[in-house]
Structures are given as structure tokens and as C-alpha cells.
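User: Can you predict the 3D structure for this chain?
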Amino acid sequence: MAALFHGLSDPTRLSIVQRLAAGEARVVDLTALLGMAQSTVSAHLACLRDCDLVVARPEGRQMFYSLAHPEVLEVLASAEVLLAVTGNGMDLRPAGGSDVPAAGGEVA
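Assistant: Here is the predicted structure, written as C-alpha cells:
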């Protein structure tokens, strides 16, 4: 459980998870979204892979990343509810305001 929460403990990794909820992405897609260097995004993806939250699929010379377990979106939805009831409400969607599917496929 500690590895799961470690993977979700960083705002950049949360943004990556939220983006991957919408479908596969390459590092270049994530660097454009996050405005970060490729090496930084790759390091965050490595952490998410180590935590078994993200899987990679090679295609030619590119690697496509996706969520290993979409159930993680239920954890994030529960976290949003808990934060709201404790008075620490926040929107866990990525910066830029793009809507991504929440648990159950609904747009959060």
C-alpha cells in the first residue's frame, strides 16, 4: 500500500495518471502537457511503473504508456471526496482544465 501511495504522492505523477485515464500517451505527449523535460517525465513514469500503476507498450521506436489498473481512478475519486469533507477540497484533474474520465467512465 505504501508503494501505491508513494506513486500518487507527487502532483506531476497525479497529472500523468489523470492524463492516462483518457488513454495511452507517449513521453512526448506528456512533456507537452506538463511543460517538463523529457528526462523529468521519464523519471516520473519510471516511478509509476515501479509502483505498478503504469505499463508501457513498445511500438517501433516509441513507447506508449497506459494505466495498469484503471481502479486507481476510484482511489483518486475517493480522495477528492475525503478532501472535500475535511475542508481541504481540491480538484485532482491535471492543469489546463481538460476533462478526463473518472471512475466508471464519467467525466470528472
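Residues 5 and 75 are 10 Å apart (CA to CA). DSSP finds five helices and two strands in the chain.
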